[in-house]
TrEMBL record:
Enzyme class label: oxidoreductase
EC number: 1.-.-.-
Family named by the database record: Belongs to the FMN-dependent alpha-hydroxy acid dehydrogenase family.
Full protein name: Alpha-hydroxy acid oxidase
Cited InterPro entries: Aldolase_TIM (IPR013785), Alpha-hydoxy_acid_DH_FMN (IPR012133), FMN-dep_DH (IPR000262), FMN_HAD (IPR037396), FMN_hydac_DH_AS (IPR008259)
CDD domains: alpha_hydroxyacid_oxid_FMN (cd02809)
Native species: Splendidivirga corallicola
Residue intervals of the FMN hydroxy acid dehydrogenase domain: 38-390
Domain of life: Bacteria
Keywords: Flavoprotein, FMN, Oxidoreductase
Amino acid sequence: MNSEIQRRHFIKWIGMSGLYMTLPIAGCIRENEASTEVDLTSLRNVFDVEKLSKKEMGEDALLYLNDGVEDRLTLKANVEAYKKIQIRARRLIDVRNVSTGIELFGESWDSPLILSPVGYQQLFHPHGEIATAKAAAQKKHLMMVSSVANHSISTIADKTQAKLWFQLYPTTDRKITKHLLQQAENSGCKVCVLTIDHPVLGNREVGIPLLRKIMSTRKLKMGNFEGIFPDGIMPEGTSVIDPSMTWDMVGWLKENCGMKIILKGIVTKEDAALAVEYGADGIVVSNHGGRQLESNLGTIECLPEVVDEIDGRMPVMIDGGIRRGTDIFKALALGATAVCIGRPFCWGLGALGQQGVELVLDILMTELKRDMQLAGVTSIQQITKDYVRS
Ligand SMILES: Cc1cc2nc3c(=O)[nH]c(=O)nc-3n(C[C@H](O)[C@H](O)[C@H](O)COP(=O)(O)O)c2cc1C
Ligand SMILES: CC(C)CC(=O)C(=O)O
């Protein structure tokens, strides 16, 4: 696709996406999600889907999606760290029947793969979070809905069958925070994922100026805030980023909502211990996909110390850099209860809408299942640290 067509796609997508919130969705570039020109069998892995997303998405949206901070050291570490771990396979095991099911907070899930919270998904496709949630429901994966989603969690819950957890950026005004929590609970959400790696915005030299440009010229609506501010746009002086937040927030959340509280962004055993002390119910080992602090370890390198500290007292999830079934396998082997992906499902969304998200989920689950068979395990519970060497 040449750059002129790309530019037109971008403008059309932005125009139809609700960033201009009064414009109808009808007439968006892809009425039925799938591009007839794409042979789906040519998309063999998430990198093929990423390549397609580069053709289909506008340049600005791509930069926002794929951006990291400064010299991209954390971003690269997340991906590279998986390559330093090898799998130890066992032989002569009947692997005709493989189960990928797990349990989380007493509920059974068909898959250990979860969709991480990603904001502003209408930048990537006009149907945004609705397309993602439909795909998650269709393929039976849990989806975490961002505070800064373009569609509110209540709209997503109304329009789809997806199982949703709510990711909270608490905002600087606790009245607004309470409204967000109520909205999530009223939508049937049982878990609140508090993001704690975001006291200030990371130094995203490319993506954030672009986002600001888009926000200032097009009014980027945040669906969850529509119930508070008529057009979903926060007034000057209120921010989703609260640099004053401390560990007391866990107790405050417990007093102000009935949801379980998961902390997303823990990368050390010290903070894992504090998570227990302050009463959190779960952890996501995360560095925000390399979009916050530079020079972090890859998240998979942080996982063992967190898992050791937690010692089975709560679920420990992980995200950052997961691109293959073998990455999922390695994270599970090192003690993750479940794993989450961000950019890969957005590449699917940008490339092919709902169908693209489904494709990415299918690719990763097919890889995981085959990797389990090749390694000689038939259930997620059997994948222990004996199956990896780093
Ligand atoms: C475009 C984009 C937007 C994101 N928005 C949010 C967000 O609103 N809230 C949040 O907690 N994390 C957000 N994240 C971080 C993801 O939840 C996740 O931690 C990260 O993408 C995982 O790394 P991966 O992209 O390598 O899979 C965002 C990530 C991306 C790429
Ligand atoms: C800028 C934030 C509000 C959204 C986010 O978390 C991200 O872009 O990584």
